[in-house]
Each structure stands twice: as C-alpha cells, then as structure tokens.
C-alpha cells in the first residue's frame, strides 16, 4: 500500500512532551496528544502583543473545533479595535529601533529562530493536528516546510547586499535595501505553521515588524510562533498576533501605519484585500485559489503516477492549494485506471493522532461542501469510482468528525461543480483525453495558475509541455511542484495578485525599499 504516512518523516508521538505552555498572563492547556472528548474545557486563544501573550477583552468569541470529534476545543476572539490599535502601535514603535539593528544581528536572530523551531517541531505539529485535523505526518511536514523558509531567510546578507559603482571619477552610487515598515499578514487555515513562516523569518531578517491574523479555524499556532521568536531574542513588538474575521482583515489592509500586506487564502477575500490595500497605497502580495491539473502521458512510469496520485490528491487531506483536481489520462494512459482506483481504495481517513493516511477536513461546512460536490456530479451523470462517503472511520468517538474517505470521480464535464470549482478535499476527477496538446490548450484557458504537472518518460514531450503551459509552477513527474524556499512561490494568473512573490529572493525585495546614495569626494581640499 502506498502511504503518505510512511513516506514522510514521522516522529513517534511518545516523544511528545506533556508540558504546560509557558505563555504568560493566560493559562493554556497542555500540548495535546489525543483528540478532544465531549466535556473538554475550551481554552482561550492567546493574542500576542508587544512581547506578551494576552487574553482579549473582546465580548465576541468564536468556537474552534477539533475536526476529528466536532468538540469545541478553544475560543478565538474578534480582537477589539483597541487591541488591534495596540498591536499596530507596538509594531510601529518596535520598527523604529529594530530597523537600526545590524543585519549581522538580525541574521543571528533568524538562525536562532530556526534552531528553536526545530526543537519545538512536535509542539507545533500537535497544535496543528488538534485544531486543524491533519494527520501527524502531514503536520510535521507543515512545520518542516516552514522551517525551510526560515533557513532561507538566513541568507539575508547575500540577498540584501548593497551594490555600487564608481559612476564618474571619485563619484560613487550605491543601492542599499532598507526595511519597509509594519507588515500586516492574513493567513488561511490549511498550513497553520508553514504559511506564517513564509513571512515571519523574512520579517526578522530584513528588520521589519508585523501584525499577523491567523485563520479563525486554527488560530493556536500564531502565539506559539511569536513566543518562539521572543525566546530567540527577537525584541518585543516585532511579531504581534491578533485575531478575528473580516474586521481584522479590513484593519490590516487599510490602517495608515501599515506599509505592506501579505495575504494567503481564497479569491474573494484575496481580491478584497488587494483592492483595499492598494487603495491605501500599500505594497501587497496575495496568494489565491487554484484549479490544478496533472497530465499522464501513455509512456509514464506507472509507479511514479500512483505515488503522484496519492501525494497530489490526498496529502494534507487534499486541502493544499497545489492539490490535484483533475487527472488527465492521455490515450493509452487510461489503462492505469484500475491500478489508480485500487491504490486509492487502500487509503484511509483517520484522526490525526491515530494511524491513517490523512485526517478529517477542517470544518463541518467544508465536509458538507465536498459531499454536495460529489452528489452534484452523481446527479449529472458522473461515475463515482471510489466513494469517500462510504469510507469513514468507525467507532463512537469519531462519529461526528469531519471525515470523508478518498474519492475518485470519472465521466465529468463542465457544468459540474467538481470541474468548475476548486475541490480542496480528498477527492479528484479522472478525465480521458486524446492528446497532450488538448490538455495544454484546456489548462491554458483555465483562469488559475497555481500548479500543473506532467508524468512522462519522454524528455521532448516534457520539454514541449513545460514551454507551452501557462502555469508558472510546473512539475515533471512531480505532482505537487511546490518550489523549495530558495526559489519562491511563483504562481500566476488568478492564483496571484501583486508583483513580488512569497518567500525566495523576491521576499527580500518585497520587504525592503531600494535606496540609492550618490557620493562625491571630488575637490575636497580639507583632507588631512
Ligand atoms: P479564506 O479566503 O476563506 O480565508 C483566508 C483569510 O481571509 C482568513 O484569515 C479569513 O479570516 C479571511 N477572510 C475570509 N473571508 C473573508 C472576507 N469575506 N473578508 C475578509 N476576510 C476574509 O481561505 P481559507 O479557506 O482559509 O483557505 C483556502 C483557500 O486558500 C483556498 O482557495 C486555497 O487555494 C487558498 N490557498 C492558497 C495558497 C497559495 O499559496 N496560493 C495557499 C494556501 C491556501
């Protein structure tokens, strides 16, 4: 059986330390090692303002659920206007001194942050499993991918080095890169550690400060990441965490003290953030939604395809912006269908703290949406080759969890939700097509440009595909071509709004202004 769990670095849960978290001012529960049972006493999600974990004074609190059991595990506030102002003030004040810290010192802080993130991987992963629902192995991968960005941020010396030229005799011009200021950051639910780490380490390395709003579905890692920064020696006020829904997003996108905004999430909220922030003259980067296609040519290596299907469609329960939506089988590649179906049938949805291949989806609404997408396809004549509605974990404890087993549809067409919408769950569709050219044409007409892949053993075919496809993150025999931290997340079309992409070399450009300084030491008579 192909298992996501065995393919990723798994740390035994016995190594999880049951310890009381050290956040000051408010009590937080022990690091979770098991799912919540009915009667669990919910904890209050900490905000983190000016180096302190604080409990909000808000009268409005939202429920956070354990997706494996549907039990309320936490309360997350709609941060009050005063708290949002306090966080932005703290970030603005901290910026005045933090920007003056030498780049060597900031690099040291970033290295220390990496070291502590590694040491606290289990604690972060446990919080992800508890609040977001991922399988343990996927939660570990979430943290590791984030740490790779933190490691890359340590390249700040090289990435922000000044360049200069003697432009005329005894006259030099140099460009230095200076930090931009307070950055507002808005997070999605699906990677509660990796995506904040697309921003936080680069903030530290470049001498900026930030106010971050985690997703209201899984807000708990926010304060932990801020606390780890403090432990690394990052000054108070550099990393601040506030919470809530649209009012917090509007505040971050419009407050005049904020210089730049980063957003990751769906297209509705993302377009709103881009419009609001640009209207207020802010620099913005928005990573948005997707519709991802994987193309299998007849000469593809079958084992590679099967592994690609498993990681592409089911890793992190398919709640990945690069997850496979449509698997195009070109010509004779259709003969792989029975093996694909058999492989998928072996996969098991299970609670994240138990053994399985992937966890529940994040929310009841998400589960209902995916079930409705399957029902819609079925009603319009699609074939359900593997039906996740019939393959859920058994037992009383998890009967209310947001589980859906692996699902494969075939015989789909435009007008069905499974073709027209982003799936964002453990489900994909198989479409048989005559030629690779057909798929290139189809994919290029799609509005999104997040991820595409081709499976083939032919160099010329792969070469043609990568050159002609208009999607800027392409995999060849790699179903989830998320670029390593060193390269940056290069999505295009309606999957991205802005000019400078997340992480990689463009992260340093996004977070800094170029300043040119022209100096003349000509005709100076008073030298010693
Ligand atoms: P979402 O858009 O619902 O939420 C993202 C953030 O926006 C959250 O913090 C949320 O509180 C806020 N928000 C939601 N609705 C809002 C509104 N009406 N006004 C103002 N703010 C609002 O996205 P999600 O469900 O958390 O994440 C899933 C989506 O994110 C998918 O579409 C996925 O493709 C996308 N995503 C993209 C990338 C990428 O790098 N391209 C990465 C991860 C997720």
Describe this entry's structure for a reader.
The chain has 528 residues and is of the alpha/beta class. It folds into two domains: 82-288 and 497-513, Aldehyde Dehydrogenase, Chain A, domain 1 (3-Layer(aba) Sandwich); 292-476, Aldehyde Dehydrogenase, Chain A, domain 2. Helices cover 34% and strands 20% of the residues. It has 17 helices and 23 strands. It has helices spanning 4-7, 81-98, 103-119, 121-132, 136-153, 156-159, 200-206, 220-231, 246-254, 267-279, 302-314, 337-345, 364-379, 417-420, 436-445, 459-468, 505-510, and strands spanning 43-44, 47-49, 52-54, 61-66, 71-77, 163-168, 171-179, 182-186, 209-213, 239-241, 258-264, 283-287, 293-296, 326-330, 383-386, 407-410, 427-433, 448-449, 452-455, 474-476, 492-493, 496-498, 512-520. The strands form six sheets. It has a seven-stranded mixed sheet with strand order 15-16-17-14-13-19-20, sandwiched between helices. It has a six-stranded mixed sheet with strand order 10-9-8-11-12-22, with helices on both faces. Helix 9 runs parallel beside helix 10 (267-279). The chain is globular, with a radius of gyration of 24 Å. The termini are far apart. Residues 1-29 have low confidence and may be disordered. Bound molecules: nicotinamide-adenine-dinucleotide. Residues 186-190, 213, 215-216, 245-246, 249, 264-266, 268-269, 272, 287-290, 321, 422, 424, 450, 489, 491, 495 line the site of nicotinamide-adenine-dinucleotide.
Brief summary:
The chain is α/β, with parallel strands linked by helices. It contains 17 helices and 23 strands.
């Amino acid at each position: 059986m192909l298992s996501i769990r065995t393919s990723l670095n798994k740390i035994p849960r016995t190594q999880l330390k049951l310890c009381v978290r050290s956040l000051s001012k408010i009590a937080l529960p022990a690091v979770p090692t098991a799912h919540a049972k009915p009667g669990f006493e919910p904890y209050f999600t900490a905000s983190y303002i000016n180096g302190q974990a604080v409990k909000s004074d808000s009268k409005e609190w939202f429920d956070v659920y354990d997706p494996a059991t549907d039990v309320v595990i936490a309360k997350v506030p709609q941060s009050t206007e005063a708290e949002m102002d306090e966080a932005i003030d703290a970030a603005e004040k901290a910026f005045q001194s933090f920007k003056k810290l030498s780049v060597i010192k900031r690099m040291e802080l970033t290295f220390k942050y990496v070291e502590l993130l590694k040491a606290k991987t289990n604690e972060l992963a446990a919080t992800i499993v508890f609040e977001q629902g991922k399988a343990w192995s996927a939660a570990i991968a979430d943290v590791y991918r984030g740490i790779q960005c933190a490691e890359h941020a340590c390249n700040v010396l090289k990435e922000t080095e000044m360049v200069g030229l003697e432009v005329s005799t005894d006259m030099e011009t140099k460009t230095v890169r200076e930090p931009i200021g307070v950055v507002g950051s808005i997070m999605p639910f699906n990677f509660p550690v990796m995506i904040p780490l697309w921003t936080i380490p680069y903030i530290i390395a470049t001498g900026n400060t930030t106010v971050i709003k985690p997703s209201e579905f899984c807000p708990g890692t926010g304060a932990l990441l801020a606390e780890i920064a403090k432990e690394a020696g990052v000054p108070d006020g550099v990393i601040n965490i506030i919470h809530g829904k649209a009012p917090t997003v509007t505040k971050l996108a419009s407050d005049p003290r904020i210089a730049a905004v980063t957003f990751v999430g769906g297209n509705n909220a993302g377009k709103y953030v881009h419009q609001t922030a640009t209207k207020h003259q802010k620099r913005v980067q928005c990573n948005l939604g997707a519709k991802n296609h994987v193309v299998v040519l007849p000469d593809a290596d079958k084992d590679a395809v099967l592994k690609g299907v498993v990681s592409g469609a089911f890793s992190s329960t398919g709640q990945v912006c690069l997850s496979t939506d449509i698997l195009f089988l070109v010509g004779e590649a259709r003969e792989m269908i029975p093996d694909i179906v058999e492989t998928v049938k072996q996969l098991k949805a299970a609670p994240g703290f138990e053994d399985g291949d992937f966890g529940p989806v994040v929310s009841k609404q998400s589960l209902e949406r995916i079930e409705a997408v399957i029902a819609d396809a079925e009603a319009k004549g699609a074939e359900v080759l593997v039906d996740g509605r019939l393959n859920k974990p058994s037992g009383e404890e998890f009967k209310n969890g947001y589980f859906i087993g692996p699902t494969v549809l075939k015989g789909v067409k435009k007008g069905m939700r499974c073709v027209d919408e982003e799936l964002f769950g453990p489900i994909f569709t198989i479409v048989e097509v005559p030629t690779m050219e057909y798929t290139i044409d189809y994919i290029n007409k799609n509005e999104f440009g997040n991820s595409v892949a081709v499976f083939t053993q032919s160099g010329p075919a792969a070469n043609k595909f990568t050159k002609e496809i208009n999607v800027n993150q392409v995999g060849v025999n790699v179903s989830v071509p998320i670029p390593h931290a060193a390269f940056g997340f290069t999505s295009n079309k309606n999957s991205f709004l802005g000019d400078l992409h997340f992480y990689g070399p463009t992260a340093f450009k996004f977070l800094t202004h170029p300043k040119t300084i022209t100096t003349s030491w000509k005709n100076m008579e008073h030298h010693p």
